[in-house]
Predict the structure.
Amino acid sequence: MKNEKLIKKYDKHANMYEKNRSNPTLSRWRSRIIKNANGRVLEVGVGVGSNFPYYDKENVQVTGVDFSLEMIKRAKQAASDFHIYAEFLQEDVDELRFESNSFDCIVSTLSLCSYPEPVVTLSNFSNWCRKDGTILLMEHGLSSNPLLSYTQRVIDPLFQKISGCHCNRNILKIIEESKLQVERIESYWSDIMYLIWAKPSK
């Protein structure tokens, strides 16, 4: 598996992610987007299972993917705690291989910042999702506020070194360059945070 140093970084962060799982603001946004998931769900960057409290447990079967074994261990416990039917894959996002139309829904929350090639990954989502399915994203990126965006660009190298992800990605530009068909977008915090409801390309 590639990115061994990055994987170790996320392994070390697992406890922190677990402690932050109940953050009230993030929880409100997670609930808003995740309640739309149904059927066979692929959650890429599943982390510690922070989305599991918000799935309709009667109507989803989740395949959770993460390259961090420590994250997956905690996600498995979260799935048990919240009675979510789930299976897990320890895999890099850029090494995932699924047949076309494999999932009814694909979920990514706070993960686009760390994908090596986010446009390619989102286009893969489009291929793996059924044509009548849904792609749900909750992502952070570059603010529309000039002062904030300047700060994000300046601190990005340090931010990436510490957290393992980028804080200066232009989410809307990435979405436009991918094969997703956007149905709805909500933004918060001067456009730093986005909730995105999308469909695969036709």
Observations:
- The chain has one domain: 4-199.
- The chain has six helices and seven strands.
- Residues 4-199 form a domain with the Rossmann fold fold (CATH 3.40.50.150).
